[in-house]
Structures
1.
Amino acid sequence: MVKRVSLGAVECPVARALDVIGDWWSLLIIRDAFDGISRFSRFQKNLGIAKGMLTARLQELVRRGVLEVRPASDGSAYQEYALTPKGRDLFKVLVALRQWGEDHLYAPGEPHSTLVETTTGEPVSRLELRSRNGVDLAWSETAVRKHHGSNAGRGGSTGKRHNDTRSP
């Protein structure tokens, strides 16, 4: 079996995030936690994941501060998993994945679940990327600015266009 390489120390924030939540089981566990699932048995049943794999993923998400373990809310001897503030900050990431999936992975008219507002039952709006002035931005209107050492945040950086084909 190939040993997984950690991306936790690389410069790229996307790579570091993927080091924590980058496998599909972790993202599906987080999705289910947002849907109110909190017990091991319910995660296992809903996902159809092997118990050993689920145990490893839950332990890693707890270790990384995405989930926390707490006593069962019903007072039983069981424990529950709950999203931490760090875990709840992943909500927009899951919404973005959901919207991408809706746009690209379903045939026209093919049924799928819809994310709705709880108070109105209406579908939520599309996620948008906006400038500080409120203007919609396309990917081609953004660039990654790398900050190096003590010049970070003071113009001592290099910008890279997203359509630049050179390697990072």
Note: The mean pLDDT is 87.
2.
Amino acid sequence: MWFRYSRRTRQKKKRNGKYMTTIIRAMTVEDYDQLHALWMRIKGFGIRSIDDSKEGVERFLKRNPTTSVIAEIDGKVVGGILCGHDGRTGCFYHVCVDPAYRCHGIGKSMVAYAMSALKEEHINKITLIAFTKNDIGNTFWNTIGWTKRPDVNYYEFVLNEENITAFIEEG
């Protein structure tokens, strides 16, 4: 399978004529400040006021301690995936790569890492939501073999009206 990965991975790729070493590893709450700053630089990114706060992400990581992923280069967070599961199905949230580091295999490497972590926990299926306006993301998922489901409708019910989603306008 294309997604086999070790638990901590280094890959060297050329960027601007120089080799960069990308470390793909499990996310910790200590990554939050840099990850949140990355989210705030990505145009169109949806941030929830409660779920995406430091406390919300810490709660998510405590529930899913091995499956969320960070990509870093020279100590700088350049990508991330919040990844969790309910014991049956995995789910990816906030998959992102800094625009300056895209097209170097970082996104695919993070996905492979998270998929391997889920597989170790005996999870056999993963879902994600990609906004229809997210052309870059939808192209990425289609390119790496994910299937868009035409046979399902997605529903949600908001339990906490204070958990507002705001979309980033400028990167």
Note: The first strand starts at residue 9 and ends at 15.
3.
Amino acid sequence: MNFTAQEDIKAPLDQVFAELSDFEAILAAVTQQGGEVQRTDDGDATGVGSRWSSAFELNDKMREITVTLTEYVPPNAMAFVAVSAGIELQARVDLVALTSVETRVDVVVDMLPKTMSARLLMQPMKLARGKLADKFQSRVKTYAKELETRLNHTA
């Protein structure tokens, strides 16, 4: 199942990428919302192969997920693979400078079931694909607006 979203942010490309790749801030936000996150690779620097494990509650059940950074091309692209309960999620974020002060962000997420139980879990999601796509688009839009506000207030 594939989801895509595209948003324009009124901020320079390098600033948008810096915010989107501020993994320490993202980890702090996850922790603040009750999730547990820890870095599981050996490196200190962020780059291809960086890996995080997280545990969080979703629908009254504890979930675990491992996220690996598979592509890191500042300031233009990042890609991740996340694995949880038989589902592999591939996510890609591409950034393009529209002008010196405006950036387009393209987000693509593909969910792939790897087990029979994961296929069964995703079946109702396929039936609600339209609603889920709208919700995905809405969340990307909200995040983009928050990011734009943050960047324009710190500039």
Note: The mean pLDDT is 92.
